[in-house]
Specification:
Layout (H helix, E strand, L loop, with lengths): L2 H16 L6 H29 L3 H23 L8 H26 L5 E2 L2 H20 L14 H25 L25 H35 L5 H24 L3 H26 L13 H18 L3 E2 L1 H19 L2
Helix pairs in contact: 1-2, 1-7, 2-3, 2-7, 2-8, 3-7, 3-8, 3-9, 4-8, 4-9, 4-10, 4-11, 5-6, 5-9, 5-10, 6-9, 8-9, 10-11
Subcellular location: Membrane
Main location: membrane
InterPro entries: Alkaline_pH_Ca-Antiporter, NaCa_Exmemb
């Protein structure tokens, strides 16, 4: 009985008596811990199922599971209304992009270059992922700040539909390229440039283990969606009372969802498989935009109120800096401790300016 097995069961058991009731501070704290545990357990079981069924369905299973978690947290807060609800999707997805391209990549490079080592990876694969991230974030969150058909940094319904469809198409092309057409571009490489084949990977779990993980994954997703609904008003109230910008809510959601992937990326970098770390980081950013924005666009049919997707001036500058530096890091196919420090400095600036805009 590992924690990944116990946590979804505990979370669902706690959700039943807590639904629709006024809760005390201690109960709210316990539910928040269970929510975080259910998120991490869900991602763990999604990875287990993905490893069993293989590609391309494995990557899709993991991406869909993470998207369900992210969207449920976003929609729960948006439905509750309040200040900043209209821009929550933008803040969360932008936070995910910055966390992946600066924080996750920076930590992976830091671990991979400790001891004077040079981190090596496949420039073709990493470059393709970065180009996909740049295109997705520009189409969905940069353009709304410059379009003129509707006042404010918002898309018209037709523009939002186009952005959602384009995001899905780009994500589908990314999955096709990564899992079928050019899989070698995304496999780890040695310092001599030799590709590590899939035989170097761990053996897939048994059918019984995968089925158990599938059941626990569904249970964990139910717990996440339900607990997110219970906790969302509390999160907003806590942020407001602390005097913090509403964008902090989006950062908290993104960190919560991406924490398991970040830990997996660091573990891969410790084993000198930086390509795997970049796959996790840039792949998570691609899925966060390519699947979350279309899902939110569909959800807006039932959610009242505007949807603000356009980035502000400070966010645009940080995004431009992150994408520019990431390009210079990826192109050579290798990186040093200097690149790690630069990425982490940009990540620190993002966190600081979120708290003190």
């Amino acid at each position: 009985m590992r924690w990944t097995t116990v946590m979804p069961i505990l979370a669902v058991c706690a959700l039943v008596p807590a639904w629709g009731r006024t809760l005390s501070g201690v109960v709210i704290f316990v539910l928040a811990v269970l929510l975080a545990g259910a998120v991490m357990a869900a991602v763990h079981h999604a990875e287990t199922v993905a490893h069993r069924i293989g590609e391309p369905f494995g990557a899709l299973t993991l991406a869909v599971a993470v998207t369900v978690i992210e969207v449920s947290l976003i929609v729960s807060v948006m439905i509750s209304g309040g200040e900043g609800a209209a821009s929550l999707a933008r803040d969360t997805v932008f936070a995910a992009v910055m966390i992946c391209t600066t924080g996750m990549v920076g930590l992976s490079l830091l671990v991979g270059t400790l001891g004077g080592r040079t981190a090596v990876f496949n420039a073709e694969g990493a470059g393709g992922m970065l180009a996909t991230v740049a295109s997705l974030v520009t189409l969905t969150m940069v353009l709304p700040s410059f379009t003129t058909s509707q006042p404010g940094p918002r898309f018209t319904p037709v523009q939002l539909t186009f952005a959602a469809v384009a995001s899905l198409v780009l994500y589908a092309l990314f999955v096709l390229t990564q899992t079928i057409r050019h899989r070698d571009y995304f496999l780890p490489v040695t310092t001599e440039g030799e590709i590590l084949t899939e035989e170097d990977h761990a053996d897939p779990p048994s059918r019984r283990t995968a089925l158990i993980s599938l059941g626990l994954l569904l249970l964990a997703l139910v717990a996440v969606v339900g607990l997110a609904k219970v906790e969302s008003p509390v999160i907003e109230t806590a942020v407001r009372k602390a005097g913090l910008p509403h964008a902090v809510v989006g950062v908290v959601i993104a960190l919560l969802v991406l924490l398991p992937e970040m830990l997996a990326a660091i573990r891969a970098a410790r084993r000198e498989r930086l390509q795997t770390s970049l796959n996790l980081a840039l792949g998570s950013a691609t899925a966060s935009i390519g699947l979350t924005i279309p899902t939110i666009a569909i959800a807006m049919i039932w959610i009242e109120g505007p949807l603000i997707l356009g980035l502000g001036s400070t966010q645009l500058v940080l995004l431009l800096l992150a994408l520019g530096v990431s390009t210079l890091t990826v192109v050579p196919g290798h990186a040093t401790l200097l690149q790690a420090g630069i990425h982490l400095a940009i990540f620190a600036a993002f966190l600081f300016l979120t708290l003190r805009p």
